[in-house]
Design a protein that fits this description.
7 helices, globular, alpha/beta, 186 residues
Length: 186
């Protein structure tokens, strides 16, 4: 075993050097495991505000032993009324930009951060299909929002695939946004 590891080590070092922050784990480590590990290392708490993913991000986090030390909970805000009443997303923002937009993703994350009193909050909103699309907002258009003490950001993605594939990819991108933010924190 030691000989094989010695041969693999320089190749792994090269891959890590070239891919940088794209590498999040080794062996069978899943993205949510890396997020929980980083939350622990950075001593930061996390909450989720989910629309398109319907609780999938929270579900993936809750699968990891020790998640309760850092993951505080989430709000599934599938309906615009819930986005407004539970997360404080302004009605005007929803009417002007629509639920599937960067400003709403950011407002969802910021509202979740405040309501659940965490260090970081992540949100998801988008169109999983098969219906509900328009020329400006096709099926697969999603936004991941991120809020932290002192900032907010959003990230657009355009996925193809089934409803379940779009939701799964969005959940992974939400977890990755949290992971990357945690790597940037001192």
């Amino acid at each position: 075993m030691t000989e094989a590891q010695a041969q693999i080590a320089p190749v792994e070092a090269t891959i890590r050097d070239r891919l940088g922050k794209l590498v999040f784990g080794v062996d069978d480590e899943e993205l949510q495991t890396a997020v929980i590990r980083l939350l622990h290392e950075k001593r930061k708490s996390l909450s989720t505000a989910e629309s398109i993913t319907g609780g999938l991000v929270a579900h993936r986090l809750a699968q990891i032993p020790g998640a309760s030390d850092w993951f505080r909970g989430g709000i599934v805000a599938y309906d615009n009324r819930v986005k407004h009443e539970q997360l404080g997303v302004p009605t005007e923002l929803l009417e002007t930009h629509g639920a599937v937009s960067a400003p709403v993703a950011e407002a969802m994350a910021a509202g979740c951060l405040t309501k659940l009193k965490t260090d970081i909050a992540v949100s998801t909103t988008g169109l999983a299909g098969p219906g509900g699309a328009s020329a400006e907002k096709p099926v697969g258009l999603v936004f991941v929002g991120l809020a932290w003490n002192g900032g907010v950001a959003s990230f657009p993605f355009n996925w193809t695939g089934t409803r379940i594939e779009i939701q799964s990819r969005t959940a992974k991108q939400a977890l990755n946004a949290v992971r990357l933010k945690l790597l940037d924190l001192a």
